[in-house]
Amino acid sequence: MTIPNLLSLFRLLLVPVFPLVFFQSWPNARQWAVLIYLVAFLTDIADGWIARRFNQITPLGRVLDPLADKLMTFVVILCITIEGIIPLWTVAVFFCKELAMAIGSLAMYHKLGDVISANWLGKAATGVFFVVCVLLVLFPAIPRPWATGLISVALAMTIAAFLSYLFQYMKLLR
Which residue, 20, 24, 58, 174, has fewest beta-carbon neighbours within 10 Å? Predict the structure, then answer.
């Protein structure tokens, strides 16, 4: 097992830890939850860099890495929705987009034996989503229209990234 794959597995283990900490009544629970999310985000960056730098890209890693990333993001957005910080439709949009990505990735893997690598727009969308979610976790009193606006920008970027991947996929099929 490569170091990048171990980092992705570690991130997967952090997914259930986030809500356990987020919903605690401790005085600094939200800050600890953000620290967990930050560790997941940094290990996402590290595993990608290590995999590319040391030629440790594996088929398992190309599945584990985005899975860990998307599950963590989904759990974070779900937690801030449960707390009433953002509306439920944002979770539905995120979930539908990720479901479409998963179905497309499976179809591509079955047809071509591989999936599309992350591109700059996908990485930027992930970064924006991270920053927005951190802000919403740390500052839950942000007025709801502002919180909805922030998450909407992040969602728009992820949808743009999805369309970019869809275009790449269609191009590969031709």
Answer: 174
